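Entry 14. Two folds queued back to back today. First construct below, sequence then structure tokens.
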Amino acid sequence: MKVKEIEFRKLVSDFVAENPAAPKKVVVKRFADLGFSRRTIYSILKRIESNIGVERKPGSGPKHRKLAQSLKTSIKRTTVGKVVPSNRELGRKFGFHHTTIKKVLSKLEINIKTRKIL
């Protein structure tokens, strides 16, 4: 999370703590005028009301999948010097998105041939 986001969450929570009688509408209007998204402000207010806290919970995002070197070599073996299926089909075969396959092939400097030349 960016420093700006953390500071903004603390700013909203401090304002709510100083003005507990202020309705949500007033709080949202005040921070929306500063250029922040109304949806973001409402979600921060919801977290404050349910006593969750405004800090981000560590490890709450998706897990990063890193390609193993052995998988890179098997992709290389499958594609070098052969007419191969599309990146989508390679992605299905190895269990990754086709754009990930494309990035791996470009890093390995492999230009794949998807069609036979007649």
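Second construct, same run, same settings:
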Amino acid sequence: MPQRWVFAFCYTRRGQTNLWEQDGETRAEHAPGAPWAGPGVRMGKHTERQEWIEVAVEVAEGGGVNEAEEDALDRADAEFKRRHQEAELAG
């Protein structure tokens, strides 16, 4: 059975500019038996200056969690850019 993980990435706006940075992240293994909505990208908590994007994934047994996290960050960045077409990500 694959492992289920939820990676969350925080994007923070610099002042009143269009410049944002991805400056925080968490990862948590999903507990077996807990409700699971399936893999995908979801909006987390957000305000005018901060936004969390969550990426739920399934990792095959023996699969690399670190690699899955890197892929999840790419998906979160793409979702952020889709939602904020005028924004620029720092770094």
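Quick look at the second one. The CA atoms of residues 9 and 39 lie 16 Å apart. DSSP finds one helix and five strands in the chain.
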